[in-house]
Amino acid sequence: MPTQAPINILQPFQQQLVGNWQNADFEGETVGGPENPLSYNIMPLPEKADPNGYILKNFRYHEKLHFNDDNASNTLAIAAQAPNRGGQIDQVATAIFYEQQVQFAEGPATGNVVHVENGTWLWLPRYIQQPGPYPNPFPGALVSAALQQPADILIAKQIAVPHGNSILALGSIDKTHKFDGIGESDDSYLLPGAPVIPDGGSPFPMLALPVPVTDGTPPPAVLISNLNADERYSTARGNPNDFQNPNPDFTLNPNLPLQQAVHCIKPDHYMHWHVTTQQLSNGKGIVTNVPFERRVSEVTDYIADYWMLFKGTKKYLAYTQTILMRLTINKAHYIFPHLTCNTVTYCD
């Protein structure tokens, strides 16, 4: 049975998430807050009226992120444990719930809510199953290392958004292994210094497959993209009322805002974890879409990296995520990366 879990049962990265986060100026800096966030979004939208068949939402944003704790009085979403029974072994899904709200930080809709989301972060260790339909609410002994949950799928992120998309992404968290003189391991998820944030992947559309035709016209022998991506993605437009691409530097390197945030914060330590719906050695996540979305802008994959940054008594949460979307344009399927990144400050 699912049971309420005290915070100390959670995995260390989950414990660090508990509380409230939002965009705020970094200590001693004038960036990071709602007026000047180090964030970025680039999202493709199908648009029949456009000669290229799509347009872009390209903007900076700020957000509020809330991870519920045992003392939350305004919600039923608390830390919880839900055993998945296997007969002799339980996989105990230990969860922390979150709520997210995102607002435009620039453009004609500045201040408007652009995205809401809720979900859970799961830790998935395995325990020896306790007998009976109403066992002790807390897990028993951990299974042996050979039967333990594979390390590459030890954590998961469940996401629900009101477009009619749901995502289950699997992954892992980095840790160091330190051994004493008698062979005992002292594992730590707290890594020294500042992380090296890699450059972000290209947001350019990738040509996929021709759309099956029904009028007898054969598909083209060679698939040629005529989406005008070089101009649309790489240059700022001259019209000040056209917010097609106000951040061309971020488009060229979508993780540049995170690199700038790390430079400003100069963390002493950090944690890093990664989740994806793409195939891993021991499992694969999944994405589901409502029929309308499957037809016009289907989400096919989700990939995300998170860094918890520690500087003195302050802590910050930086992330970059890529959502791959399949759009149908000019009788061909294209895979468009929808990229977002931000760095928020712990405020409670």
Short description, anyone?
This protein is mostly beta strands and 348 residues long. It contains five helices and 20 strands.
Order of neighbouring strands in the sheet with most strands: 2-5-7-8-10-11-16-18-19-20
Fraction of helical residues: under 10%
Overall form: globular
Strand content: 35-45%
Please tally the β strands and state the result: 20
N-to-C SSE series? Answer: EHEEEEEEEEEEEEEEHHHEEHEEE
Structural summary, described in words:
- It is built from five helices and 20 strands.
- By secondary structure, it is mainly β.
- The protein has a ten-stranded antiparallel β-barrel with strand order 2-5-7-8-10-11-16-18-19-20. Strands 12-13 form a two-stranded antiparallel ribbon.
- The longest helix is centred in the last third of the chain and has 10 residues, at 256-265.
- It is globular.
